[in-house]
Amino acid sequence: MSVYRSTRSSAEQQVSFEDAVITGLAKDGGLFIPSEIPSVPTDFLSAWKDLSFQDLAFKIMRLYIKEAEIPDNDLKDLVERSYSTFRSEEVTPTVKLDSHDNLFLLELFHGPTYAFKDVALQFVGNLFEYFLQRKNKGKAEDDPTRDTITVVGATSGDTGSAAIYGLRNKKDVSVFILYPTGRISPIQELQMTTVVDDNIHTLSVNGTFDDCQALVKEVFNDSEFNDKWHIGAINSINWARILAQITYYFYSYLQVSQAVGHGRVKFIVPSGNFGDILAGFYASQMGLPVEKLVVATNENDILNRFLTTGKYDKGDVKPTHSPAMDIVVSSNFERFLWYMIKETIGKNDEKATGEILNDYMKELSTKGVFTVPQAVLDKATSILDSDRITNEETVSTIKKIYEATSNNYIIDPHTSVGIATTLNQIKKDNDPSITYVSLSTAHPAKFSEVVDAALTSYPDYSFEKDVLPEELKNLSTLPKKIKLIETATLESIKDTIVKTLS
Predict the structure, then answer these.
(1) Who contacts 465 (Cβ-Cβ below 8 Å, separation ≥6)?
(2) Is the pLDDT of residue 139 over 70?
(3) Which residue out of 96, 117, 400, 427 is catalytically annotated?
(4) Could you tell me which residues come within 8 angstroms of residue 151 by beta carbon, excluding any fewer than 6 positions away?
(5) Active site includes 266?
(6) How large is the angle between the packed helices 490-501 and 209-221, nearest 10 degrees?
(7) What is the C-alpha radius of gyration for the chain, rounded to an integer number of angstroms?
(8) What tens digit of pLDDT does each residue of 432-485 get?
(9) 145: helix, coil or strand?
């Protein structure tokens, strides 16, 4: 069907793919979701097993995008260009960790900014450009009717640089990225602030990531400002980001099931804003026979607490060794919850489901907490499992994998949260017939302090020699462009955008 609706709408809705992508956030504050989740062909395990990542991406995206919106040749070209920037021919290779018989790692850090966000944001950048070129065809450069997009996004580390690298120098696109001052790694900050293209603007905000994310939502909810400046989203609230990430679940599953000779596979996903694991949920609902999806959280464990108690309670954010996951409100969880409500207390009525979810979101906004009925929790836990990993466990797991692998494999702290959760799952399941695929979401070079803290005692270890890629070594020598936002208010962000673009 390939049409979209808001999670919070209690009315009939049919929004096109282009409108869902360009708008990002629905006017009622909800997130766009497909009205129906399409199914893959019944023979996909055999028919798709030898496809390249790019060919697989095309087939999956085609199920969600009408050919009338993006013709086949154009979609194929978008996919090819988006993944031509990756250092691995496989784009997202799955590698075997020889420390355990049934443990694999899905490496998602081979894109331009060494983080999993590249898989989606290289595609989203090209998609924005495609839609704008089509709208502006035949219009002069100085034509005041030219369509433009002002992208406003928040980052806890990796989204910002991935968005900047995906959108730098894109015609008719201006980019404003907000990040919490002092709460991302030095390399993550350098990756953003050393991009000095005219259309890129990096804002260091005095506050937390949740403050930044709340400001972005306020900008979107200011309809007058939004209409004037054509605000667009690159955070994982943008549906196109989720869509692009579905591919690597299929690609990895097809690789692993052929390697081990069976299809009992669990995916373990380091989770903050819930976008990465949400893509796995869509893959499973499309027909990928996943044994279980496992949410791996750090000490900011709102998702683990919800899946244990049914209570979604914000609490306070704690700085941890895995800063990209230092989030107390996981935006994309709203999408998952919509489906859980629809199939239980919503009684498969989309309008009733939107109304129920909207009430929960109001409770979260006013009280900081809501609780779902047992039926909704039972449905959620039939699909998801979860675990909470401490800072100490994060460091010890980096050591453990370094010691236990024949090639002294080095992981970043977010990947460590995933692997620590995986090792707990292996112990709990005690079932050698299950294969575990843990998602590696970032290159260890981006988190030198934690990696060094874990590994400096090993005589053969060298961060410069073993971890740091050549292109990241040069970042500190480059000129920087950055604006400090001392007061984290909507007016200060709007004022910055207006002054910059006027």
Answers:
(1) none
(2) yes
(3) 117
(4) 128, 163, 167, 173, 174, 175, 176, 231, 232, 233, 234
(5) no
(6) 70
(7) 22
(8) 999 999 999 999 999 999 999 999 999 999 999 999 999 999 999 999 999 999
(9) coil
